[in-house]
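Long-time lurker. I teach an intro course on protein structure, and each term I like to show students one example going from raw sequence to a predicted 3D structure in token notation. This year I'd like something fresh instead of my usual example. Would anyone be willing to generate the tokens for the chain below so I can use it in lecture? Attribution to the forum is fine with me.
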Amino acid sequence: MITYGFFDSVDGDRVYNADQMSNYFKGLITDGVYQSVGTAMKVSPGTGMSVQVGAGRAIINCKWLNNSGVLQVDISPAHTAFPRYTTVAVRLDEENRTISIVTHDGSASATPTPPAPVRSGAVYELILAQIYIPPNSTQIYESNIRDTRPNGDLCGWVAALVQNLDTAELFNQWTAAYNEQYEAFSNAFTSWFSQLTETLNVDTYIQKFSKTINALGTSTVIVSDISGYEFEGSDIFMVFINGLKLSDDEFQVIESGEGALHMVIVDFGFEVSNGQIEVVIFKSVIGHPV
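-- Reply from a regular --
Happy to contribute to a lecture. Here you go:
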């Protein structure tokens, strides 16, 4: 079936509907959020268990939404025992002819996962942010909010025909490159370590130590009190905040004092308002495991 437009109506012979008007943009611009309008609908902490969606515009299935000011969105109370994720989404409902900003709560569990966008029937959603909700929390902090606007699979930025940016593909390429580089570094380290132990003709093994705390306005974690752990400058440290790994330049290991006053801490240089912090330490030990 061929459709076309638009022409002036003569005695009512040219009548167009909303879908024909909207479909004019199909192929010209992509779904997503306008990066340069307002604050691009950035999700930020609000008061208590609420967030704020900044001003901005979005395109969703060729229809548009304009948020002219800061919109407060309430978040459901936290679970008493387990964390969960809550998503903030732009929701298109073709049946009810509405576009709104909504939230979806994931299941509370020891290992929660964010809810997927609803995309079936007359409903289609773009996810603006995924919010980590620790148990018993009464405030949303910046560190709890994962911005998903750049992820083309969940939302993406609006791109024009001449600069059609597939942000999902870029994101996947970056992830693949990171994994490839990490594997290369890991293989190189394993090869070097194997050659070293063969040269020295001794047996070695890797010990793993870890410590997990629930953060509440902290910027440091004491690791010298981990049972059986003794600090050495060659130890390898990895730090995770709410499951996200920090890069090596985002924290430092500080040793101070001697004897009973000896202390080793991991310092992030910034305050973690809420959530879970895990420090993992790998130590190369010569000999056989006890």
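Some talking points for your students: The domain at 202-286 is CATH 2.40.30 (Elongation Factor Tu (Ef-tu); domain 3). The radius of gyration is 26 Å.
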